[in-house]
Amino acid sequence: MNEIKLPGYLKALVVLLLIIVIIFILVIGRGLLIPLMLGGYIAMLMIPACNWMEEKKIPRVLSAVIALLTSIAAIVGIALLVILQIRNFARDLDDVSERLNRYLADIDAFATEKFGADLGISNGMDKSQIFQIIESNSETLSNFLLNTVGSLTGVVLVPVFIFFMLIYRDHLGSFMAKFFRDKDNGLVKAKISDLRKVVQYYIIGMFKVMAILAVLNTAALYMIGVKHALFFGLFAALLNIIPYLGPFLGAILPFIFAFLTMDGLIYPFLVVICFTIIQLIESNFLTPKIVGSNVNLNALITFLGLLVGGAIWGVIGMILVIPTLAILKRIFELRDSTKPFSFLFGEEDEIEND
Question: Is 305 a residue whose pLDDT tops 80?
Answer without folding.
Answer: yes
